[in-house]
Amino acid sequence: MSDAAMTKLKHLVQNRRPYHMLEAPFYTDPDIFKADMDLIFRRHWIFVGLEPDVPEPGDVMNVKIGDASILIVRDDDNNIHAMHNICRHRGAALVVDEKTSVGRLVCPYHSWTYGLDGALLHAQYMPEDFDASCSGLRKVHLRSVEGLLFICLAENPPEDFEEFAKTAGPYVAPHDIANCKVVHESDLIEPGNWKLAVENNRECYHCSANHPELTQSIYEFGFGFDATEHDPSRQALRRHYEDMVEKDLAAWEAAGLPSVENNQRLEAVSGFRVGRMTMDKAGESQTLDTKIASKKLLGNFTEARLGDLSIHTQPNSWHHLMSDHIVSFAVFPLSANQTLVKTKWLVHKDAVEGVDYDMENLTRVWSETNVQDSRLVGLSQLGAQSPGYVQGPYSKQTEGQVEQFAAWYIARLKAHLCA
């Protein structure tokens, strides 16, 4: 980053207006995009997938974060490793597919061969004093939080991630992610900056007008929507929702399911929010009829109506864990105006398609919602690129979580720029 670009970024960070959209360059400037990749995505814990992405020994997942290609590999002892996808000989990529299964990791260039843990096993024609133990694949920090996989590309990752693992782990554990399977994946390139994709996710102000499928099961009140209601029918709906929340949270907590919201996005380096939300109608799952999509419940669950365990992690993920299935989302920036949103649907590993679940019913709500959100993100990007763009105000009643994300982002930039 040039000195001029750095000075500009520092000025923008210093002058950020609370409870307002970020200034346009944060969404459009290629230099700021590069700073985001360096200061955010290469220095924080990034969600990359789930343990069922690599269910068997030898399974490999290739994750790309900017220019970095990282291999997530399960070894013969069922340990999972994260390693740079770079041969230690002359730098060739070892794996080009997004997912594959191997016995060993073999470089296609000169056949240097590595174990599933990254140790160099074979390098032909090297000198006698060559020390293979010093030429294993470069490891990347990896943590599994009850099956949710995070990596950090920094040499010294943020230590407060332990607080997230300690807090969120008990919420996630009953859903038994390790004994789930990924049954559907969707890659959607949204025509907007990654921050617009995250901001859109952090509020439900737009839900009733844009998400007819999703709002069959969710209440906007569960997503930070706290507007004063004047319409009598809306007032009654709000009272009904609050009564349900009080009863549901008490019942779920009594059953041993942590449910009360814990929100540390604003103050934590490894920011997060976790909490179990009441859902509408049957209240079982995020489907059109709000009933379970899979007859085979997760973990040891015997009760279908367990709400939606909603998890947000800074900077790039959100998740919905229900009694019968899980929907997991990850955001990967591609450029200043393009973002890859990866969505995965999981069910119990023993669930059988056509018997226990119907794929269309399982995936329809979020498949439709993702397309709708992509359109909205694209509209926001068009606005940010216009010379007429000015910073609009957030609603303090409905967009508090958007402000929390924006404040977190600015605080992290400020911390790194000052350092």
UniProtKB/TrEMBL annotation:
UniProt keywords, alphabetically? 2Fe-2S, Iron, Iron-sulfur, Metal-binding, Oxidoreductase
Tell me the PROSITE patterns matching this sequence: RIESKE
Q: Any idea where the Rieske domain is?
A: 45-151
Q: A Pfam family matched by this chain, by name? A: Ring_hydroxyl_A
Which cofactor is essential here? Fe cation
Against InterPro entries, the record matches this protein to: Rieske_2Fe-2S, Rieske_2Fe-2S_sf, Ring_hydroxy_dOase_asu_C_dom, Rng_hydr_dOase-A
Domain of life of the organism in this record? Bacteria
What name does the UniProt record give this protein? (Fe-S)-binding protein
Naturally occurring in which organism (per UniProt): Acidocella aquatica
Q: What is the lineage of its organism?
A: Bacteria, Pseudomonadati, Pseudomonadota, Alphaproteobacteria, Acetobacterales
